[in-house]
């Protein structure tokens, strides 16, 4: 049985984003969500990258665009590795 993924809609004024299309707006919203969840420790970098269709390395590069460092003292690399490993198990 397939489980339907929840969808969140975010209203915004059309003029706010200028010439950006709906696909670009959705991509930015997903990026921002997964970067924030990574920052909060809710997703590993590998899992966030996978959800965005990126490699872990590309996701780590994306963090810089959002001003988020992947060198965080609170980051538990062993736990990040375990989450990534569990996602592929």
Overview features:
single chain; 89 residues; mainly alpha; 4 helices; 0% strand
Topology:
Layout lengths: L21 H18 L5 H8 L3 H10 L11 H12 L1
Helix pairs in contact: 1-2, 2-3
Q: Total number of helical segments? A: 4
Q: Structural class, from secondary structure content?
A: mainly alpha
What portion of the residues fall into strands of 2 or more residues? Answer: under 5%
**Number of domains as seen in the coordinates:** 1
Radius of gyration: 15 Å
Parts with pLDDT < 50 across at least 5 consecutive residues = none
**Mean pLDDT across every amino acid position:** 84
Number of strands: 0
Query: Gap between N and C termini, in Å?
Result: 20 Å
Helix amount: 40-55%
Shape: globular
Biggest sheet details = none
SSE order: HHHH
Task: Describe the 3D structure.
This protein is an all-alpha fold and 89 residues long. The protein has one domain (19-88). The chain has four helices and no strands. It is globular, with a radius of gyration of 15 Å. It starts with 21 loop residues before the first helix and ends with a helix.
């Amino acid at each position: 049985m397939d489980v339907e993924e929840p969808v969140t809609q975010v209203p915004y004024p059309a003029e706010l984003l200028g010439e950006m299309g709906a696909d670009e707006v959705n991509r930015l919203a997903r990026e921002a969500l997964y970067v924030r969840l990574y920052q909060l420790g809710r997703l590993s970098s590998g899992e966030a990258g996978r959800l965005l269709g990126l490699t872990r390395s590309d996701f780590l590069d994306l963090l810089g665009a959002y001003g988020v460092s992947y060198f965080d003292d609170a980051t538990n690399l062993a736990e990040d590795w375990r989450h990534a490993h569990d996602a592929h198990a």
